């Protein structure tokens, strides 16, 4: 279920701050055309730390998107991240697919820190099909069953069919690979910065080699502005986006935001340090950032200065065609990084 990639699906990214919907149409040659897009804000209390706390608020947001976009396709794909998700790359003796299917649950029990009965488990082999190899690499993903059920349930309650559940980090990678040329000589960190969680996926030699979710995101920026200027959550959100609130301007917010950006850089650095200590790959050569938090003023500049490598915002529509009569180019470009997960999900298909 987690890796399912044929009929197209609607990509639905259920985030802590917003719900994002994208529908694509695949053309010949593996290219895509944008069909529908929608973004609906969520109340802060709806999803906390990646867990759905008020399902009715989430269902209402999904139904609004369904109505606003007029989407007809009932097949939806969504994704999860956070502490309820475990991703492990393990090495096993080479075996046939049937044998692997029989033994994978026992293998998973050795590597997953949850009760195996409490998780949804999926896996895929990464090694080449070389009969001479003694060992094989397997990518193992386990997600707490309760979390999967919660996300599937809100889609069902909105009147749509939840066809597959992916992982945020892999959806981002789908969007990146569609829109950018993979350089096998570069180590690229795909950093998806949401409101509550930041997903880091390090890609080297054309494949993922390291994953980590950190509990740091846009909420930390908003809360810092609330404390500093005694603002409501909504007021702080406006100020974070560069709008003036009362007598406070973007210039007033800059020092506060930069301080939190430095904290974000520290958290990313810890991840890179761990990656460097546990991997034979070289240091990270480039940062590609996505998610609503990535649009925080001056954050990209802070990261660029801290890490000394090229840093850019991911544009998930870079290679996707669309009619400018249907979608305003400036608006689309302004929100593009926050739609990377939903684009990566919308590339998937039913049953593949």
CATH superfamily of the largest domain: ATPase, nucleotide binding domain
CATH top level assignment of the largest domain: Alpha Beta
Largest sheet: 6 strands, mixed
CATH architecture of the largest domain: 2-Layer Sandwich
Radius of gyration: 20 Å
For the record, the count of structural domains works out to 2
Structural class: alpha/beta
How would you describe the overall organization of this protein?
By secondary structure, the chain is an alpha/beta fold. The chain is built from 10 helices and 16 strands. Strands 10-6-1-2-3-16 form a 6-stranded mixed β-sheet, sandwiched between helices. Strands 13-12-11-14-15 form a 5-stranded mixed β-sheet, sandwiched between helices. Strand 11 (187-193) and strand 12 form a beta hairpin.
Helices, strands, pairings?
Layout: E1 10-14, E2 18-26, E3 32-41, E4 47-48, E5 51-52, H1 55-69, E6 75-80, E7 85-93, H2 97-111, E8 119-125, E9 135-144, H3 145-157, E10 161-167, H4 168-179, E11 187-193, E12 198-204, E13 207-214, H5 218-229, H6 233-240, H7 250-278, E14 286-290, H8 299-307, E15 311-313, E16 320-321, H9 329-335, H10 340-346
Parallel strand pairs: 1-6, 3-16, 6-10, 11-14, 14-15
Antiparallel strand pairs: 1-2, 2-3, 4-5, 7-9, 8-9, 11-12, 12-13
